[in-house]
Amino acid sequence: MLKLNNVSVKYGNVIALENVSMEINEGETISIVGANGAGKSTTLKAISGLVKCHTGTIELEDQLLHKSEPEAIVRKGIIQVPEGRRVFPQMTVFENIEMGATLRKDKANIAKEIKEIFSRFPRLKERSKQLAGTLSGGEQQMLAIARGLIAKPKILMLDEPSLGLAPLIIEEIARLIKELQKGGMTILLIEQNARMALKLSNRAYVLETGRVALEGNAQTLLNDDFMKKAYLGA
Ligand code: ATP
Question: Does this complex have an ipTM over 0.90?
Fold first, then answer.
């Protein structure tokens, strides 16, 4: 469905990604794990069109994507849920969710779908008139995901959804991701929390200083000695 072929990205003279190739098939959950600065966010930005590829190509369903503008990429259904719960703090929960539908062509069912989203996220429903900036960290992360879902993603890209959250909330987010998987959603998950990411994924790519150091079945990587030493704290 989505393919990165030998993608390199430079910031000035800094090579942030070097010959990165990845493939995401429909219905899969793929994770990208790696240390700080490994290039995880840059990979998402390249897919979203927020940084340009220096070399290489990105394709969505066999159409070249990497020369499109970020807005066009969102319209094609590649939706990024940003790191650090970047919701609009001065807008209500409801308004934040509505914003997620801004670029949708089919506006007809949005009210009904917001209702469905609220039944999936009862805590957001209770707080629909509350300003998003006053939500807890976990609630803001849920809101960011809800805002992503109302955009009707073909691929939902989650950037560090566990960042800075307490273990119980992380479990809740993991449950939500599993529900989305059951519904057939294609998910690209970026995580420093490699154990969580691998447990939730079908396959994973491990980035080290801008290159794919390791890739494969997530279960296999969970049992890999190098992964255990370097990323899984065992
Ligand atoms: P983290 O988990 O800390 O967010 P990451 O794996 O997402 O890290 P990136 O943010 O993609 O890593 O960064 C990859 C490399 O590119 C790093 O060396 C970083 O310093 C560099 N980099 C990222 N953004 C810029 C920028 N705007 N200008 C210059 N260098 C950048």
Answer: yes
